[in-house]
Batch of 4 targets.
Target 1
Amino acid sequence: MSGMSGLLLLGLWINLHTCRALPNQLPALSTAPPGQLSPTAPLLEADGCGPCEPDLCPETRGCRAGLVLDSCGCCKECGNLEGQTCDPGDRSVFYGLCGTGLRCQKDPRPAGGGGGEDEEEEEEEEEEVCVCEEQEALCGSDGVTYINMCQFREAAFSRPELKTRGRGPCKTVPIIKVPPHSQVNGTGSSLVFLCEVFAFPMALVEWRKEGRDVVLPGDDPHISVQSRGGPLKFELSSWLQIEGAGPEDSGTYRCIARNNVGSVSASAVLGVLGAEELSSYLANSVSEMKQLMDATDYDQDFY
């Protein structure tokens, strides 16, 4: 037995000195739980991404906001456009990364009005979207004003010949984006005409009624005019309101917009009817609509 004990002690002594002499040959001890990767495993493998082989990356086309790295940090994919939801930071996780000249931040647009679903609204408010880093407007060689550089890049992607004419909007004759609409209503009602205008330099908007050589509201207490900037940059919205309208208010109203480049106008007709006239007008309108529906062949197969 003493001989056997001596052999065991000799073997332990040899193993101990071998390990001290060759420490790099010791097996790596994994602290990860069974079934999981070791903390020393490559990050790509931990995320389900294999070794990066650029030659195997899919071809990307039609990327209007340029190229960004995918979730594995290997291949290129289309960057997100302005206004699209994005992943903050420099790594694509779920929504993707913003394209050229864009940064991911909280949506700068105002949140919607209050409602019953407060939690959902809070989630929407916290959502981060791609916002253009250069917000200055610029004028394109096509004579179109682009609100920022990112919108210009998107347009130039499909039209390589498009160039920038200069910083700031293009000088242009006013453009009526939303003209006033004709309407018919009863005596005593409140009526509103709307006129939205885009122009640079900003336009001056005035209202006139045909047959009267006066800028409204004039001295008429039941007519008022209000204007404000918006809803978009370089736009102006103007309202003409008539309180307690009477038959004498019937006629053609004109919205006139002008700046130092030129002027433009749009008109709408107002009809103010008494109770019997309004009832007859509505009956005729319903009859005309019914005839139009009867003349339409809804049995036709459009598919």
Target 2
Amino acid sequence: MTDRYAAYTKLKFDYPAPRVLRLTFNRPETFNSVDAETHTQITDVWRDIDRDPDVNAVIVTGTGKAFSAGGDFGMIEDMTGNFDAVMRTWKEAKDLVYNIINCNKPIISAINGPAAGAGLVVGILADVSIAGKAAKIVDGHPRLGVAAGDVAAIIWPLLCGMAKAKYYLLTCKAVSGEEADRIGLVSMCVEDDVLQETALQIATDLASGSQSSIRWTKYSLNNWLRQAGPIFDTSTALEMLGFMGEDVKEGVASHREKRPPEFRKDCPL
């Protein structure tokens, strides 16, 4: 591995084919949950990938039985009621999405198992998203007591329509790989035993194609996402506002205690 990625100690990198970089979430003991350091690294790495002259395509996947379980409770608890931590995370959350959108290399996600939170940002924003049948895609923000921020508002309605987006984002119900394929939330669903092979084949094809035409097509299509920037910025701001309230404390406690949450019954807005 070149020195370009040496600082990204929370992520695993390899080259499964010429000019194809594979980035792997590598905390299998926590289902590849994202702590504060991992969140920073998964935000910053796309700028280095964008500038890497030796890479034409990127695969993102997770070690073990999960793609990524999202932010860990330690990170969430550190943010709760902490204005400075919330502001730092808000900036990173915005940068993560825009860095992926602006990365000139095509990104292929191989979603193997649960995908949530910051991990799901990468999985669902990928230019080609491939879910295994064991995939379990869930945006659980309201269940945690904060608004659905991260990537939800910028892309779920565009992929699967407003009706499905509202249903899954408001109820926090999980979407299987097959259902995600059916409603258009991912590019395709394949058998789990061919997930990595399929991702590698697509990445290899893209890496060997006309780079100018592939990158310029990605850039043009991603203007659909760029024009939704104000919607996205509002969603992340409201998510972060939630970390300054009481509901998120109950959300985390109920998760830890494995019980239904008891949120306040009203809200002035």
Target 3
Amino acid sequence: MSHDTTSSAPASDGIRFAYWVPNVSGGLVVSTIAQRTDWSLEYNQRLAQAAEKAGFDYALSQIRFTAGYGAEYQHESVSFSQALLHATTKLKVLAAILPGPWSPAVVAKQIATIDHISAGRIAINVVSGWFKGEFQAIGEPWLEHDERYRRSEEFIRALKGIWTEDNFTFKGDFYRFNNYTLSPKPVQKPHPEIFQGGSSRAARDMASRVSDWYFTNGNTPEGVKAQIDDIRAKAAETGHRVRIGINAFVIARDTPRKRPAPC
């Protein structure tokens, strides 16, 4: 299946599938079991090609500056995403972005360029941050929980403005722009897709106002439904549309039952 490069999302509202890109060594699950994935570029390019052939729509990279859950080595997400795009033809890759280390001006320029190079196959996942030690290690100020989401919302509003307007001016608490015009604008219209996650009240409120996609993770079916209903109700108040993604896991193991004899 192919993506419409004149729009930031596929035309169909059917189910789409994504996978986590192992651009880190381990750290994909909270487990002491040795991970079978490989963080190398060669492995990841083969994995992306296999996922594309199997019909996956998205690949989601990770951003880490320090080890977490055993992820000792970490490839940077934006440049690694671009390498995966060069190895595929249809797959859309989500580059994880962390406000603080990145500024909206840099991200807007980077992603617009990659959008042209890849013919509209790049998106971003805005990660508000959760690990204080990581911010301290790289000399970034640490904001309290709700302030991190408030910064992320400004970050997304700034990105949207840069990607869609000329002479963009923005006066926020965290970011300022004065008559800035990005040229060229991204291929995708109105702009590349913007994803986010988080289960807190602040995360859900942010998604209902500015994000294209909201990831939810780790809840009962009833809990997930309550989150979705909550976000959609809040989004409806402002006329915003947000799509929902759910993090799912498949447990694959040998069955104790005897396999039937082939016909």
Target 4
Amino acid sequence: MPGMSLELYREICTEMKNFKGSARECNFYLCEKFPDVPNLSLGSIYSLEYQRRMKQNHARISSAAAKYYDRFQEAVNRGDEPGIILRIAQEVDISPALLARMILEQHYERLAPELAISVSKALISRKMKDTTLIEDRDVAYEVYLSTLHDDQYGPLADVGKHSLGQEFELKLQRIAKDLKLAFRGEEHLRLKGFDKTPDLKLDIPIAVDGFIVNWIESKALFGDEEGHRGYLKDQYLSYWNRFGTGLVIYWLGYLETLDQMNEKKIIIMSDFPSNITKMNPHCIKPPQL
């Protein structure tokens, strides 16, 4: 599948920004509006844009965390219906799980002297993952509801994204094995001392339309310019420096403009290439001494 046109991508992003409603409702709307774009691709585009918006909003909201905690406690004391954090999150345009984490931090910071505990990121993360560890019943239930309804942030969302990533990594390995390609995985490379490693390092390179592929990286997401630029800096160029040219597979599609950003160091596809050429090591002549 070729890359997505910039015009279509911008149209999708505009529809997302103008939509008023939850992430799930927006995903349903996008699937109806753009029936020719795979659902997983639309979900990935939404997730990437949502995360960027939340990063911008997070600083604004976190500076007023104490105020939102007081609002939360006032609602609990009034006996408001469950879903207090969800309603505040929708009002101020922040992820429910992110707001729940701020409220949980405030809750324990105020209890710290009484409980004689140190409020650390590890403590809050542990209680976010297992709300039965939260002593206050109302806080525990509200945090639980927030993580349950948030499909972009929080422990449940993290598990889903990790599972999708593992699924496509296993798919890549199955294809490589079916094609009888000799390769090493991430774990083997790390045992050899490499800190940044691609998903597959080919022992014997392959060629795709004449382009030599020494390694393959699997990404279970849509490749847009901002994300790809970050991966180039943090991962792909390191792979190129160590192993040579390679292939990146954005399984959920990619923006066509990415092909112009790679300086012939990598190629990008949305599936494993069908037109590969295997190299026969027995036909390679040894260098003349």
